[in-house]
């Protein structure tokens, strides 16, 4: 078994920016020596998340709306009261979505559904420079 670690780096605009990283992950799989296995896609930090979605305009509008209904920005968050950084809702949203996703791949192709893309969710209230770690494991 072989393990390779790669990084994706990019800047975000903040506040529920959804970024399709499927192509970037696929490009790293293509460059690695591993043909079959799993790739764990992970964002270090407490206000970013990784998930999948059908990356189309309707869902790109629905996703932030759903987050606002579930975890409203305007609520009182103890985190904000303690740190005064206005991103308590960002931390809660990121915790619920999760920082990692594992996707199997075969012949260097991720085994995703026809309409399924891997996305990075910027949930912080401000722009950020982000690093996404790819831990590629297999043969």
What gross morphology would you assign?
A: elongated
Give the ordered list of helices and strands: EEHEEHHHEEEE
Give the strand tally.
Answer: 8
Percent in helix:
25-40%
Q: What does the largest sheet look like?
A: 5 strands, antiparallel
CATH hierarchy: architecture: Sandwich
Strands of the widest sheet, in order across it, are 1-8-3-5-6
Helical stretch tally? 4
Describe this structure in words.
- This protein has 139 residues and is α+β, with helices and mostly antiparallel strands.
- The protein has one domain: YjbQ-like (Jelly Rolls), CATH 2.60.120.460.
- Helix content is 29%, strand content 37%.
- The strands form 2 sheets. Strands 1-8-3-5-6 form a 5-stranded antiparallel sheet, with helices on one face. A 3-stranded antiparallel sheet has the order 2-7-4, with helices on both faces.
- A hairpin with a 2-residue loop joins strand 5 and strand 6.
- It starts with a strand and ends with a strand.
- 23% of the residues are buried.
Question: What attributes does this structure have?
Answer:
139 residues; alpha+beta; Jelly Rolls; 5-stranded antiparallel β-sheet; 3-stranded antiparallel β-sheet; 4 helices; 8 strands
Concise description?
The chain has helices spanning 22-31, 57-70, 78-83, 88-97; strands at residues 2-11, 17-20, 37-42, 48-53, 100-106, 109-110, 117-122, 129-138.
Secondary-structure blueprint:
Layout (H helix, E strand, L loop, with lengths): L1 E10 L5 E4 L1 H10 L5 E6 L5 E6 L3 H14 L7 H6 L4 H10 L2 E7 L2 E2 L6 E6 L6 E10 L1
Antiparallel strand pairs: 1-8, 2-7, 3-5, 3-8, 4-7, 5-6
